[in-house]
């Protein structure tokens, strides 16, 4: 029995000598020989400077800015005779998208041509009376009546011309009507911008009322992301933060943080503008995004395997001449396999990126990685 106690005592005394090369001379250092370093499976690496901090992951919807989307509507009631564009087609500004037969357009053209004829007739009387008034031949009352009638016809003609423009006739079509004086019920609807047909709402052969929607056209050079952010996470999000889209090289920049909370899900809408032209995402698509915060002070990115936890604090192990220095850190952000940390470092130190558990055991004097 005494023999066994003696052996046990020798083992306990010899244990520090076995790990004597790894026990700390001070509380924040670990002395470790090259042989023991290799036996513990420790791998060294370098800091990676971190300039961005992941804030949160959130779903987002790809939308078209309001100023980039247009609705092509029937400017008059009538019968659709032709549709020239399908969904997905690229169209140019002024291109004819649809054609209609509109009886009401005939009436407007007739009124315009009549007003134009009356204006031309009164134009001769106006020029004649103006000359007579300048020569003092006619009375002032007659000149006022003539000029008043002429101005009224000018206003009426301009009004009817603008109504034709509102009805969908172009300036060249109105000029052609003025020249040939021939009525036409055919009305052409033109693309208001150069863009892509997002939706076709009309059907050939159908009768539609005035302002009935036929096409939706959008300029896709600029797209936005609408992100629903939980209101309790909003404190770390500011205008100018970057947004990354999963599995793509595309990024966006936050341009607006909403001011109202959605009562149904307690989220606030954040709007981000996608940077540059791209063809990876589509309008209406729901995608996964990650909001990134800019880091103004010095921070580093390290593998999660480089970090050891003890009594609620985090540490990493920095290589020195005799072993490792145990350095406290503050974890300010985490990703799948990496963490963003801050600490008193230069940035060119060698650190243990694998084997932190074994080093923690040596630091705490446990005698084993477990």
Number of domains: 3
How many beta-strand runs?
23
Helical run tally: 6
Q: Would you state the CATH class of the largest domain?
A: Mainly Beta
Q: What Rg, in angstroms, do the CA atoms define?
A: 40 Å
Please tell me about this protein's structure.
The protein is of the alpha+beta class and 370 residues long. It has three domains: 19-51 and 297-364, conserved putative lor/sdh protein from methanococcus maripaludis s2 fold (Beta Barrel), CATH 2.40.420.20; 55-67 and 221-294, Elongation Factor Tu (Ef-tu), domain 3; 69-218, OB fold (Dihydrolipoamide Acetyltransferase, E2P) (Beta Barrel). 28% of the residues lie in helices and 36% in strands. The protein contains six helices and 23 strands. It has helices at residues 2-18, 34-39, 103-135, 140-166, 171-180, 356-364, and strands spanning 29-31, 43-46, 48-49, 52-63, 69-73, 78-83, 90-91, 96-101, 186-190, 195-200, 207-208, 213-218, 224-230, 242-245, 251-262, 267-274, 286-294, 300-303, 308-310, 313-319, 323-334, 338-342, 350-354. The strands form five sheets. Strands 1, 3, 18, 19, 20, 21 and 22 form a seven-stranded antiparallel beta sheet that branches. It has a six-stranded antiparallel barrel with strand order 4-13-16-15-14-17. It has a four-stranded antiparallel beta sheet with strand order 5-12-10-7, with no helix packed on it. Helix 3 (103-135) packs antiparallel against helix 4. The two termini are 30 Å apart. The relative contact order is 0.20.
